[in-house]
Amino acid sequence: LAPVTPAAPAPAESAAPVPPEAAPAATEGALPPLPGPVDPAHAALGPKLRPAAVTARAETARAQATAIAAAAEAAARAEAEALASASRYAVASSRRPTERPSGLAKAVEAAVAAAVTAAVTTPEPAPAAAPAPAPEPAPEAVEIDEPEPLEAVPNMPTTVTVARQATVKNAIDLGKINLIGVYGSSANRRALVRMPSGRLLKVKIGDRLDGGQVAAIGDSELTYVKGGRSFTLKIQKNG
Questions:
Q1: Domain holding 226: CATH number?
Q2: Is residue 209 part of a domain?
């Protein structure tokens, strides 16, 4: 077989010059032009890093904002829970109380000053006087039957026999000191003595009697010392 010779390409048409007004239509949809070559002097330059203080403040502000948001969310949740469990008589808003009167503070100060003045000027009450001791009851009077005074007897001479018959045996002599009785315990003995004048005396050991001093009181006798001598009075017994 005879070799096949390829056909020669057709000669390229000569490019016709493009008119200026047709240039934008030809470049529409094409990539932007490449920047110019970089200046080697500016190749190592770059933007400065953000300062660390600014970064720290930004992080702090971000943390605070997060905390505030969390607190607001918690408060809203708590308020919702409180409203859910609130009484049915609760109200959404209450009336505002009236303001305190303008002259109330002055009135209070005046009242306090008046109270202090009254406390200073008022004298303290005097201590209550101790109650007087009750008087001791007076000893009961002892009624003693004294012999009735005898009627005056005419002074006339009498015989010895008549005088003896008229004398009562074991009777007291009204012209002398007589021991009428003894009373009290043995440790606190007392005696009742009749004086010649008719006066009755209650005496104890150590008392004065007839110008002397009582020395002893027995069951039925009394001894007193007068002028260095002892005198004994005995109870007169009938019979």
A1: 2.30.30.830
A2: yes
Burial of 177 (0-12, 13-18, 19+ CB in 10 A): middle
Beta carbons of 193 and 200 less than 8 angstroms apart: yes
Distances, alpha carbon 25 to alpha carbons 13, 16, 22, 29, 157, in Å: 22, 16, 6, 9, 206
**What is the spatial distance between Cα 194 and Cα 200, in angstroms, rounded to a whole number?**
5
Contact 191, 202 (CB under 8 A): yes
The per-residue pLDDT for range 16-67, each reduced to its tens digit, is: 555 555 555 555 567 777 766 667 777 667 778 888 888 899 999 999 999 9
Residue 181 and residue 235 in contact, taking contact as beta carbons nearer than 8 Å: yes
Residue 193: which domain range? 171-234
User: Is 203 a member of any domain?
Assistant: yes
- Is 126 among the domain residues? no
**Tens digits of residue pLDDT in 65-93:** 999 999 999 999 998 888 788 777 777 77
Domain count, the chain: 2
Between CA 157 and CA 113 the distance in angstroms is: 106
Provide the token pair at 202.
């209650």
What's the rounded Cα separation, in Å, for the pair 68 and 206?
109
C-alpha–C-alpha distance, residues 18 and 146, integer Å: 188
